[in-house]
Amino acid sequence: MAIPSAPPGTDHPAAAEAAPQRFPELYVPEMPFAMPELQALAADGLLDRLHHRGYTLPGVAASPQLRARAAAGVVPPSVRQRVVAGRMTAAWIYGCAAEPDRLALLVDAKRRVSSLRNTRGCTLHEVKLGPFDVVSLGGLMVSSPLRTALDIALHVDAGRAIPALEGLLARPEKDVRLRLLVLAIEATPRVPHKKAALEKLAALAPALVAGGPVNVEHAVDPADSAENVAQVLGVTHFEGKL
């Protein structure tokens, strides 16, 4: 059951380039070890736990792509292309939150949700998604950093939301700006939990959260996506694959 060491002679740079990668980055149940074997290997220090059903070799960097691959393994293949990892699951994938107990999966309101109700280990949220709200990452669709931040501010309790928002804002490559989040929430007049969301953002930077609404020419319907919010506010928001 032990994981073999690297073959001799591959420590030379030329040999390392010529030799194919022998060990996978991610170990999941039955590929090739059963779950009890994976747990035993982790207990012996031969594997590191990445996810409750995913393990890596010691020293392997837990990248967003790798975490997305681990999360994808929990989603049944039959529904994987119909759901989007969001909220605290997306924050975990981006490295800004702890691993959640259950996967938060977003389902576009245009799709049929009834067939997904029995997806185990997951919580489904019916939402409206625009093309800029989703990125492809590690074989899984994930809510974009901006959409993730908006959803967390609106729907996650402050104790978990504020640290996750701090993490997203601290990573410039995610292109999440606090002022944009404030404007997006204040410009949606009927969005649920708006006051609580602004209180969370005020805890991060009180000076950015004014007492009154932002004066915009066109209000944003609460069902609109982060993409449309950005368009109304005149803020450039790029689509991308991470």
TrEMBL record:
**Stated name of the protein:** AbiEi antitoxin C-terminal domain-containing protein
Q: What organism, scientifically named, is this protein from?
A: Pseudarthrobacter polychromogenes
